[in-house]
Design brief:
332 residues, 2 domains, 8 strands, NAT_N, globular, Aminopeptidase, two-stranded antiparallel ribbon, six-stranded mixed β-sheet, alpha+beta
C-alpha cells in the first residue's frame, strides 16, 4: 500500500507525518484493513487536544473513574517525552479522535479504531480512554449549543468510569464492546436521564439500562417522563414516536422464572414485543453472561447464584436452553 499523509492537527514531536499503513498495522499488531478504515474516515480532519495533565485527575474524578483505573490512566499519559507512546500509537490516538469528532451529533454505534493488544501496557490499554478525554470538552460544547445542562452532561459522560470498572471486573474482557459504546456519549448521541440511558436516532428513542441500582417501576416511569420533555426541548427538529429497547431482558422466557411483581417482569410488561428476528452478529447467551455475571469465561457450574435472576439464567443454560434478544416498543 502506498504512503499516505497522516493529516490532522500539527503532530507532537516524534509523531510520524507520512505513514505507511501496512507498517502501522504491523507495529500495532492489527489488520491493515482496520488501520485503513481509520485513515479513510479521519482523513485530514482536525483532532482535539487532551486536557492538561495537571487537570486530568479532577476530570477523571468527575467522570466517576475509580482510583485504580485513574492511576493506570495517569501512568500511561501521552506526555511528549513518554517512551510508552510510539509514533504509531500517537498517530492512532490523533486520528481516532478526529474520526469520532467528525461525527459529532451522530447517534449510531461507531468504532473509534481497531482493538489493540491491551497487555502491552497502559498506553495500549487506555488509548481510547485518552480519546474520550480529549473529546469531553468537544461534546460538552455540543451539549451547551443544545441547551443541555451541565448536570445531564456530566452524569452522561460519567459512564466512562462505570464501564472501566466493569471491564476490570471482567478481567479486561469487556472493553472491545465498550470502546464503540462510549462513542455515543462522546458525540452527543445518548443521554442518561434518571434510571435509563436514552439514545437518539430515527423515529424511536432507544433505551439502555446502566448498572446503577434497582430498576424500580417508579424510577423507570420518571426516566421516561423526563425523556418525553427532554428531547422536544433540546432537539426540536427530531420527531420521535416511541421508545424502543432491544435486550435479553425482554425475552418472555424470563417470566417463567421471575416473580410477577419483580422489577424486570414489570419492566418487560411495558413493551409491545416486535416479531422475533435473529440479530446479526449477536449471541444472546453471550450477552446474558456479559451483563448478568460480567464474565464470558466462567464455567456455568461456577457462576454466582446470589439472585433469582442469576439462578434463572444459569439453570436455563445448564438445561441446554437458550436466551433470545427481543425488541419492544412503548408509545411516546
Amino acid at each position: 500500500m502506498a504512503d499516505s499523509s497522516a493529516g490532522g492537527a500539527t503532530p507532537p514531536a516524534g509523531t510520524i507525518v507520512r505513514v505507511n499503513l501496512d507498517d502501522i498495522a504491523a507495529r500495532l499488531g492489527v489488520p491493515v484493513e482496520d488501520v485503513d478504515r481509520v485513515h479513510r474516515l479521519a482523513g485530514d480532519l482536525p483532532s482535539a487536544p487532551l486536557p492538561a495533565k495537571a487537570d486530568a485527575p479532577a476530570l477523571l474524578d468527575r467522570l466517576a473513574v475509580r482510583p485504580d483505573d485513574a492511576a493506570e490512566i495517569m501512568a500511561g499519559w501521552p506526555d511528549l517525552d513518554s517512551p510508552l507512546w510510539t509514533p504509531e500509537l500517537r498517530w492512532l490516538l490523533d486520528r481516532s479522535i478526529a474520526l469520532v469528532r467528525a461525527d459529532l451529533g451522530g447517534h449510531a454505534w461507531l468504532s473509534p479504531g481497531p482493538e489493540l493488544p491491551r497487555d502491552r501496557g497502559p498506553a495500549w490499554r487506555h488509548l481510547y480512554v485518552y480519546a474520550y478525554l480529549a473529546l469531553a470538552d468537544v461534546v460538552r460544547g455540543y451539549h451547551r449549543d443544545h441547551g443541555i445542562t451541565d448536570a445531564v452532561s456530566w452524569v452522561t459522560l460519567a459512564d466512562l468510569g462505570r464501564n472501566l470498572a466493569i471491564d476490570r471486573r471482567m478481567h479486561r474482557e469487556g472493553w472491545p464492546v465498550m470502546q464503540s459504546w462510549l462513542t455515543l456519549h462522546a458525540r452527543g448521541g445518548i443521554y442518561e436521564l434518571g434510571r435509563l440511558q436514552h439514545q437518539r436516532g430515527g423515529t424511536t428513542i432507544d433505551l439502555h439500562i446502566p448498572e446503577s441500582g434497582p430498576m424500580t417501576p417508579e424510577a423507570v416511569t420518571a426516566s421516561l417522563d423526563e425523556a418525553r420533555a427532554f428531547f422536544p426541548r433540546h432537539f426540536p427538529d427530531e420527531r420521535y414516536t416511541a421508545f424502543s429497547c432491544g435486550s435479553w431482558l425482554l425475552d418472555p422466557q424470563l417470566l417463567e422464572y421471575l416473580p410477577r411483581d419483580s422489577n424486570i417482569a414489570r419492566f418487560q410488561r411495558r413493551f409491545e414485543l416486535e416479531p422475533y428476528e435473529e440479530p446479526e452478529g449477536l449471541d444472546a447467551d453471550v450477552e446474558v453472561l456479559r451483563f448478568a455475571f460480567r464474565t464470558l469465561t466462567t464455567p456455568l457450574d461456577q457462576l454466582p447464584r446470589r439472585t433469582v435472576l442469576q439462578r434463572a439464567i444459569a439453570d436455563h443454560l445448564k438445561a441446554r436452553g437458550h436466551w433470545y434478544w427481543r425488541r419492544g416498543r412503548i408509545p411516546l
